[in-house]
Every structure is written in C-alpha cells, then in structure tokens.
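Full entry
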Amino acid sequence: MSVQSTRAGMVLLFLRHHCVQARAVAEDAPEGIRRAGLRLTHTPAVLISRGRIGEQLGKIAVLAPLDERRKAFRLLIAVFAVADARRRERFCSGGCGHWWHGLSAAG
C-alpha cells in the first residue's frame, strides 16, 4: 500500500467520523448523492442507500480502488454538509464547541 493510498484512506475515515459527529441519518443519503453528483448505481451511492448509515459510512470510507475513493470522498463531503447544516440550525445556533464551525471561508 502506497503512502498516498494510506493518506487517502485516513482522509476518508476522518470524513466518516465527522459525518457521524454531525449526526448523519439515512434520510441524508438522497441529498448527499445528488450534491456529490453521483449516479445511483455508483458503489458509494448504493452502499449509503442501504440504511444503517453508520455501518454504510464505514464501508464507504474503506473502498479501495482510486475511482471509488474519489466518489466516496465526494459523497462523504456532501453527506457531512447536509447533516452539519441541520445540526447547526437545530443545536449549534447559540454556539457550540465544534472546531469546524469556527472555520471561515476566507481564511
């Protein structure tokens, strides 16, 4: 396994963790797939559509072929965005300790 492959895997696991922290739910899957620009037949889209989101996010994060990792990255980012937007609105509007909520787009 190359260093690049290992780093890519670590990034996907990091994103999976943040999807879980943002409280992603199965209902986030269709919008995540749409935002990621994936077809419903792409492996990450098929996996996330099967329910049990925590388990499926884990499977997506360890996909091996480079092409599947690219799709997994796009999907995990999109699902995180959907889940985090809901979390920010419902639970974090008055302030919170999530480090990523302190990031600025300009910075």
